[in-house]
User: Fold these one by one.
Assistant:
Number 1:
Amino acid sequence: MKQIVKLLQANNKTIATMESCTGGGVANAITNIPGASEVLRFSAVTYSNEYKIKMGVNKETIDTYTVYSEEVAKEMSYNIAKYASSSYGVGITGKINRQDPNNLNGEDNVVYISIYDNDLNTYHTNKIILPNLERDKCKKIIIKEVETILKDILV
């Protein structure tokens, strides 16, 4: 994330995150870097549908596509960017090695990432199929993928 923070600083850009299955891991990785306060505007961990909706995700989108979908990840990234008035918004949703009794639909071990570019009104999305590893290892894979996408956007 060191390169991401430097690139955001150099380009006078900011970032905000709305994370579910990563539990704030992306924001944590950013804040581990000196100077993060110059680029990270806001971070929300929205594990429940209720709080995704409170943060702007449309309930109809969740009902139509499931909470574990690219469409929900896109709404998460868009809404957090708008909420924080940041250049980029990161949205992450998916299941890691566990059935969710509150959301029975959606694929297991599949995570959706969306990065919304507020200046260009564009989305960068990816679907990750995770190996059957411990949660912390899966989170590291997801965070690394977010880092890769951000590098591609910022370079």
Number 2:
Amino acid sequence: MPRITAGELKGRNLRYPEGERFRPTMDKVKEALFSIVAEEIIDARVLDLYAAAGALGLEALSRGARQAVFVEQNPQAYRHLEANIRALKVSDRTIVVRQDVRVYLKQSKFFATHIFCDPPYYYSLAKETLDLLAKNPGVTTETLIVLEHASNEEIVLPRSLKIRDSREYGDTRLSFIGKKGV
């Protein structure tokens, strides 16, 4: 069962939808991700795209993020996400949007210091989402995009983005992406 791995909510279990369509971020991957961004997550504003049950955004809140915006379209995942937020009593620091991520990125104005992006593997959603993020004025040179994808999935970046770092954990790769300076 997925859980919060550190911070004020450490050890709390998260409800997660069942079925092959849902792939929770493994605890070892979450721990590695947050050890990399540990200092900068404090007081951060995070955007959790393809949030599912909200594991990454909720982990960020537990570790000191100021606010998390979750975007999830699937009704089953959305119900679990809302239940997790209620159970953890972090409603005052969250915004939950039930919408397709691509529509959200085209229509919404947002500012996030960190964007967690965990689209379903192998559906070309990673490329499409990165293209939309590259065009969005809410993404600046200060924004860190963390893309979780299959380790054997080739990621094609828009010209304005660059990979700052990449780490592999079994079948999962975390790519740390930023906007190039002018």
